[in-house]
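Hey, can you fold this?
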Amino acid sequence: MKQKTIQSIILEFEPKSENILPALKKTNAIFGFVGEKEAKIIAEYFDVSESKIFETTSFYDEIKTEKQPEILIQICNSANCTVNNSFSIISEVENLLKIKAGSSASSKFKLEEISCLGRCADGPVMVVNGKIYERVTKSSVHGILGEYI
């Protein structure tokens, strides 16, 4: 069933190199990630190597290559957010949820440090399952995550 769905996704695009990224984004949006099976089918359709597909997916933070947990927490670690104490936000989330940034140990939560989201005037920025929170403080972390826990 999954393979058939992947086939239906890629058939929406002409097999031209400029359509690889849109096909990957759509696959990611539907499945939540682009796994090895999906990458192989996409590579064959676009007549490129699987490494080209994974090179493309690894460049974009929004495209995942493995199944994501129920709650994905992302915190910006770019210069402005760091100056505004994003690392203390990361530590607070780690302590609250008993997880480490970058670890896949929890099946329910995942905490990632991500690069700039272009909201530098409103940092530090935290994204939870796609919802953006700006000017996050250590004290606001509990309230924000309380909506998801």
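Oh, and this one too while you're at it.
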Amino acid sequence: MQKIYLDAAAALDGLLFDGMHICAGGFGLCGIPERLIDAIRDAGTKDLTIASNNAGIDGEGLGKLLRTKQVKKMISSYVGENKEFERQFLAEELEVEFCPQGTLAERCRAGGAGIPGFYTKTGVGTVVAEGKEVKQFDGEDYILERGIFADLCIIKGWKADKSGNLVFRKTARNFNQPMATAGKICVAEVEEIVEIGELDPDCIHLPGIYVKRLIDGSPYDKKIEFETTRDREAA
């Protein structure tokens, strides 16, 4: 099976349609599928429902799709760094489903494992629980959360071999791994593609069976949300 594609547009060819549900890996600007996001923007696909920890920042990451108003709904945990997100939300131009971070990760993991729902204590007694089934286990309340299973998963990795086995680098692993399993098809972009056998089998984070299409998106610029520095100490 041919998994390696020339670029992001080619890798997404035939997969995009209006109103689709997408899982997008990354945390802030760390480990986000930049090339695939750009290709979705350029394709003009609209009315998207996107599950992602956050919605990027203004002009970067998923913030690019918000700017072009291609997103109908966000399922997210943290959205505090995006003014356009705030504007659209307050103007009721964007539907938002807030979800605790751990719950969001587990909803994706559960969806990928074929589990349609699970009970958790997280959010009990808060607005997170509104409209959800509550059940007691051993005298404690738990709320029912639905697993997430999308039409398309887009993720970013560090290295992959030609069969799609993939390694993430440090914190860029974040939501990429569970989201890679939570969809009908997973498209990955990586910084380097190596020959089969070059990756240590014990170090592979995502088996190639989950990755259907793959691109080398290098080179990448390392973007930082907030640059914080301190004065150099005197010699």
